[in-house]
Every structure is written in C-alpha cells, then in structure tokens.
Amino acid sequence: MSEGPDLEKFHVLEQQVVKVKDFEAEGWILDICAGGEGVIGLLKEQQGQTFFLEFEKK
C-alpha cells in the first residue's frame, strides 16, 4: 500500500488567482491536460477537444 508523497520534498505556496482572457482561434483546439481546471473547455466550449491524462506510479 502506498504511503503517499514525501511532503518534505514539496514547497507549498499560497493560493494564487490567474485571470485568463478569451482569445481568437480558428478550428479545433487540442487541450491535453493532467487534471487542470479545464480552462480551454470553459473558454472555447465549441472548439475544445480535451484529453485528460492519468498517471500511475509503478
């Protein structure tokens, strides 16, 4: 059974807010992510094709 990450190797920052403005785009937008907030999908719902990646430590 996994014991979880070694927290001594992490540096924790205060929460930050990043504003992402809408942008012009033609055609499809490929959004490859690993658990983000789905920003492209929110901004470009009709154009975005999102693939979520899942990583497993072996």
Explain what this protein looks like in three dimensions.
The protein is mainly beta and 58 residues long. The protein has a domain at 21-58. Helix content is 9%, strand content 17%. The chain has 1 helix and 2 strands; from the N terminus they run βαβ. It has one helix at residues 39-43; strands spanning 29-33, 48-52. It has a two-stranded parallel ribbon with strand order 1-2. Helix 1 links the parallel strand 1 and strand 2 (48-52). The radius of gyration is 16 Å and the shape is flat. The model has no long low-confidence stretch (mean pLDDT 77).
Provide a compact summary of the structure.
With 58 residues, the chain is mainly beta.
Helical/strand content category: mainly beta
How far apart are the first and last residues' alpha carbons, in Å? 12 Å
What global shape is seen? flat
Largest sheet: 2 strands, parallel
The total of beta strands comes to 2
Annotation field: number of helices: 1
Helix content: under 10%
Main sheet: which strands, in order across? Answer: 1-2
Low-confidence stretches: none
Whole-angstrom Rg: 16 Å
